[in-house]
Amino acid sequence: MRFILILVVFLVASPSCNSQDKKEDYWKKKLTKEQYHILREKGTERAFTGKYWNNKKEGEYKCAGCGQSLFTSDTKYDSGTGWPCFFDVEDKQYVNFVDDNSYGMKRIEVICSNCEGHLGHIFNDGPNPTGLRYCCLLYTSPSPRDQRGSRMRCWGRKKKRGGGGGGGGGG
Prior knowledge:
Layout lengths: L1 H12 L6 H11 L2 H7 L20 E4 L5 E4 L3 E2 L7 E2 L8 E6 L6 E6 L5 E6 L9 E4 L2 E2 L31
Antiparallel strand pairs: 1-2, 1-9, 3-4, 4-8, 5-6, 6-7, 7-8
Protein backbone atom coordinates (compact mmCIF):
# COMPACT_ATOMS: atom_id res chain seq x y z
CA MET A 1 0.00 0.00 0.00
CA ARG A 2 2.81 2.39 0.87
CA PHE A 3 4.50 1.65 -2.50
CA ILE A 4 1.30 2.49 -4.41
CA LEU A 5 0.89 5.77 -2.52
CA ILE A 6 4.51 6.74 -3.24
CA LEU A 7 4.07 5.83 -6.90
CA VAL A 8 0.89 7.92 -7.19
CA VAL A 9 2.56 10.93 -5.52
CA PHE A 10 5.58 10.54 -7.82
CA LEU A 11 3.42 10.41 -10.95
CA VAL A 12 1.34 13.42 -9.94
CA ALA A 13 4.35 15.53 -8.92
CA SER A 14 6.66 14.43 -11.74
CA PRO A 15 7.91 17.48 -13.65
CA SER A 16 8.17 15.48 -16.86
CA CYS A 17 4.37 15.31 -17.00
CA ASN A 18 4.17 19.09 -17.44
CA SER A 19 7.51 19.91 -19.01
CA GLN A 20 7.97 23.17 -20.91
CA ASP A 21 9.02 21.21 -24.00
CA LYS A 22 5.74 19.30 -24.04
CA LYS A 23 3.78 22.51 -23.60
CA GLU A 24 5.61 24.20 -26.46
CA ASP A 25 5.10 21.15 -28.69
CA TYR A 26 1.38 21.41 -27.95
CA TRP A 27 1.30 25.12 -28.87
CA LYS A 28 3.31 24.58 -32.06
CA LYS A 29 0.75 22.01 -33.20
CA LYS A 30 -2.29 24.04 -32.14
CA LEU A 31 -1.33 27.50 -33.42
CA THR A 32 -0.30 28.87 -36.80
CA LYS A 33 3.32 30.04 -37.10
CA GLU A 34 2.20 33.67 -36.75
CA GLN A 35 0.03 32.92 -33.72
CA TYR A 36 2.83 30.93 -32.08
CA HIS A 37 5.32 33.75 -32.70
CA ILE A 38 3.06 36.32 -31.09
CA LEU A 39 1.41 34.33 -28.29
CA ARG A 40 4.35 32.16 -27.19
CA GLU A 41 7.44 34.12 -28.31
CA LYS A 42 6.02 37.59 -27.53
CA GLY A 43 6.34 38.73 -31.12
CA THR A 44 4.40 41.40 -32.96
CA GLU A 45 3.16 42.23 -36.43
CA ARG A 46 3.88 45.35 -38.47
CA ALA A 47 1.40 48.18 -37.99
CA PHE A 48 -1.55 48.30 -40.40
CA THR A 49 -0.81 44.77 -41.69
CA GLY A 50 -2.63 42.54 -39.23
CA LYS A 51 -5.72 40.69 -40.35
CA TYR A 52 -7.98 42.32 -37.74
CA TRP A 53 -6.61 45.80 -36.99
CA ASN A 54 -9.35 47.50 -39.01
CA ASN A 55 -12.17 45.02 -38.46
CA LYS A 56 -15.56 46.61 -37.86
CA LYS A 57 -17.87 43.66 -37.17
CA GLU A 58 -19.71 43.38 -33.87
CA GLY A 59 -18.61 40.69 -31.47
CA GLU A 60 -16.50 39.40 -28.64
CA TYR A 61 -12.73 39.01 -29.09
CA LYS A 62 -11.21 35.83 -27.64
CA CYS A 63 -7.71 34.50 -27.06
CA ALA A 64 -6.38 32.66 -30.11
CA GLY A 65 -4.62 30.20 -27.81
CA CYS A 66 -7.40 29.06 -25.51
CA GLY A 67 -10.62 30.82 -26.55
CA GLN A 68 -11.01 32.82 -23.32
CA SER A 69 -13.07 36.01 -23.68
CA LEU A 70 -10.92 39.14 -23.67
CA PHE A 71 -12.57 42.18 -25.27
CA THR A 72 -15.84 43.22 -26.88
CA SER A 73 -16.33 45.26 -30.01
CA ASP A 74 -18.03 47.89 -27.83
CA THR A 75 -14.60 48.81 -26.43
CA LYS A 76 -12.62 48.60 -29.70
CA TYR A 77 -11.57 51.91 -31.21
CA ASP A 78 -9.28 53.34 -33.87
CA SER A 79 -6.17 54.52 -32.06
CA GLY A 80 -4.33 55.40 -35.27
CA THR A 81 -1.52 52.98 -34.34
CA GLY A 82 -2.39 50.25 -36.86
CA TRP A 83 -3.05 47.59 -34.22
CA PRO A 84 -6.36 46.48 -32.69
CA CYS A 85 -6.95 48.65 -29.61
CA PHE A 86 -9.52 48.51 -26.84
CA PHE A 87 -10.16 50.85 -23.92
CA ASP A 88 -11.25 48.08 -21.54
CA VAL A 89 -11.21 44.30 -21.10
CA GLU A 90 -14.36 42.21 -20.85
CA ASP A 91 -13.40 41.19 -17.30
CA LYS A 92 -10.20 42.04 -15.40
CA GLN A 93 -9.84 38.40 -14.30
CA TYR A 94 -9.28 37.35 -17.95
CA VAL A 95 -5.92 39.14 -18.30
CA ASN A 96 -2.77 39.49 -16.24
CA PHE A 97 -0.16 42.24 -16.38
CA VAL A 98 3.61 41.80 -16.39
CA ASP A 99 6.36 44.45 -16.33
CA ASP A 100 8.15 44.43 -19.67
CA ASN A 101 11.50 46.22 -19.90
CA SER A 102 12.54 44.72 -23.23
CA TYR A 103 14.06 46.80 -26.03
CA GLY A 104 15.01 49.56 -23.59
CA MET A 105 11.36 50.50 -22.96
CA LYS A 106 9.25 50.35 -19.81
CA ARG A 107 5.90 48.84 -20.75
CA ILE A 108 3.24 46.63 -19.23
CA GLU A 109 2.62 43.39 -21.08
CA VAL A 110 -0.92 41.98 -21.23
CA ILE A 111 -1.18 38.18 -21.08
CA CYS A 112 -4.12 35.79 -21.10
CA SER A 113 -4.84 34.65 -17.54
CA ASN A 114 -5.80 31.19 -18.78
CA CYS A 115 -3.02 30.11 -21.18
CA GLU A 116 -0.47 32.88 -20.41
CA GLY A 117 -0.27 33.83 -24.08
CA HIS A 118 1.19 37.25 -24.97
CA LEU A 119 -1.64 39.55 -26.09
CA GLY A 120 0.14 42.88 -26.36
CA HIS A 121 0.69 45.88 -24.09
CA ILE A 122 -1.36 48.42 -22.17
CA PHE A 123 -0.77 52.17 -22.33
CA ASN A 124 -2.34 55.12 -20.48
CA ASP A 125 -3.17 57.19 -23.57
CA GLY A 126 -6.58 55.72 -24.40
CA PRO A 127 -10.01 57.36 -24.58
CA ASN A 128 -12.59 57.80 -21.84
CA PRO A 129 -13.99 56.24 -19.78
CA THR A 130 -10.80 54.35 -18.78
CA GLY A 131 -8.00 56.37 -20.36
CA LEU A 132 -6.36 53.03 -21.24
CA ARG A 133 -5.25 51.58 -24.57
CA TYR A 134 -4.98 47.82 -24.70
CA CYS A 135 -2.89 47.40 -27.85
CA CYS A 136 -3.39 43.72 -28.54
CA LEU A 137 -2.79 41.47 -31.51
CA LEU A 138 -4.24 38.01 -32.22
CA TYR A 139 -7.69 36.76 -31.36
CA THR A 140 -9.99 33.98 -32.39
CA SER A 141 -13.28 34.90 -33.94
CA PRO A 142 -15.37 37.24 -31.83
CA SER A 143 -18.80 35.77 -31.21
CA PRO A 144 -21.78 38.09 -31.60
CA ARG A 145 -25.05 37.07 -29.98
CA ASP A 146 -27.69 35.62 -32.26
CA GLN A 147 -31.44 36.15 -31.73
CA ARG A 148 -31.55 33.45 -29.02
CA GLY A 149 -28.79 35.12 -27.01
CA SER A 150 -26.25 32.38 -27.72
CA ARG A 151 -22.88 33.00 -29.36
CA MET A 152 -22.00 32.70 -33.04
CA ARG A 153 -18.50 32.94 -34.52
CA CYS A 154 -17.44 35.97 -36.55
CA TRP A 155 -14.92 38.82 -36.21
CA GLY A 156 -16.09 41.96 -34.61
CA ARG A 157 -16.47 45.58 -34.01
CA LYS A 158 -19.73 47.39 -33.39
CA LYS A 159 -18.92 51.03 -33.95
CA LYS A 160 -15.89 53.23 -34.25
CA ARG A 161 -14.76 55.00 -31.11
CA GLY A 162 -12.73 58.15 -31.24
CA GLY A 163 -9.94 59.29 -28.99
CA GLY A 164 -6.70 57.81 -27.80
CA GLY A 165 -3.46 59.02 -29.26
CA GLY A 166 -0.97 57.12 -31.38
CA GLY A 167 2.53 56.71 -30.00
CA GLY A 168 3.49 53.82 -27.80
CA GLY A 169 4.05 51.17 -30.45
CA GLY A 170 2.44 47.83 -31.05
CA GLY A 171 1.61 44.91 -28.87
